[in-house]
Amino acid sequence: MQTYTSLDPFPAESPPVVLAIGAFDGIHLGHRKVIGTTLERAAQTGGQSWVLAFDPNPKCFLRPERAPLLLALPEQRARQLEGLGIDGFLLLPFNNTIAQLSPEAFIDLLHAAIPLAGIVVGENFRFGHKAAGNITLLRRLTAERGLFLVVPEPAHYQEEPVSSTRIRQAIREAQITDATAMLTRPYRIRGEVIPGKQIGRSMGFPTANVHLHNEILPPPGSYAVEALINNRRYPAAGYVNPWAEDHMVEVYLIDEIEELYGETMEVDFIAHVRNDQQFNEVEELKQQIEQDVETVRRILEQKP
After folding, report:
1. Residue 274's domain is classified under what CATH number?
2. Which residues, in sequence order, are CB contacts of 49 under 8 Å at separation 6+?
3. Do residue 208 and residue 147 come from a single domain?
4. Does a structural domain hold residue 278?
5. 62 lies in which domain range?
6. Using one digit for the tens of pLDDT, what is the confidence trace for 53-84?
7. What is the pLDDT of residues 105-125, one digit of tens each?
8. Which residues, 6+ apart, have CB-to-CB distance to 170 below 8 Å?
């Protein structure tokens, strides 16, 4: 998959491009319908399938205090798109220049830089200065420029449309099974292992403290997780600590002892084990951790 962070220059003599535009945070069921349609139309037109997204997310740039936490980092999103068979990924910087473009100017910018055959977007797509552009306007603008526009029907889960907002809510409520179903895979975080206070190690459960970037976390408590380090997958128990000074997750690799400081770890959330609890005695906490580890072991052994 080709990846570009600028429209200039777009690959010379490129075949016609079918372009999917959106945030694509998490690449959930709804995104997959848009991407699947993009792949189909590219095949039908003898062209290439491309995806356009912005970094940072426009919401993060325009209203950082109200911006949602992420379901995936840009590099994770790129890997997911490549796995789906997309030919090219345009990850453009979102800045004041882009933010000030009218809907018409935004489409003209893309049309001048890319040999577009058509555009594919979700039904809630908005574009242009102050999100003034909607699907109705986009239909007119694409038709005037000789482009086709496809707006796939939204994907549904439990009779409700799938959206990144809905998945974030499921994660916030520790509804890990629902989040997994809407994402079509376990929710995954990624970060660097940093030194901690060694509390778990003192009880016989050395944990890796995974420092995150801007990803959303489930509520405090214990979770069955799988850790990925250097392309190897480990069964593990995860703990979201409400008292942590950093945005992080504590991960105990079951039956493994490894020196992990400085390593990059990805963590898949498989199941919620229990809510956070307070303990008066260290021995009580140790016994609970032992129970949690055994529960996690059973959950992961039964995982399909």
Report:
1. 2.40.30.30
2. 17, 18, 20, 35, 38, 39, 41, 42, 85, 86, 87, 88
3. no
4. yes
5. 2-157
6. 999 989 888 888 888 888 998 889 999 999 99
7. 999 999 999 999 999 999 999
8. 176, 178, 179, 182
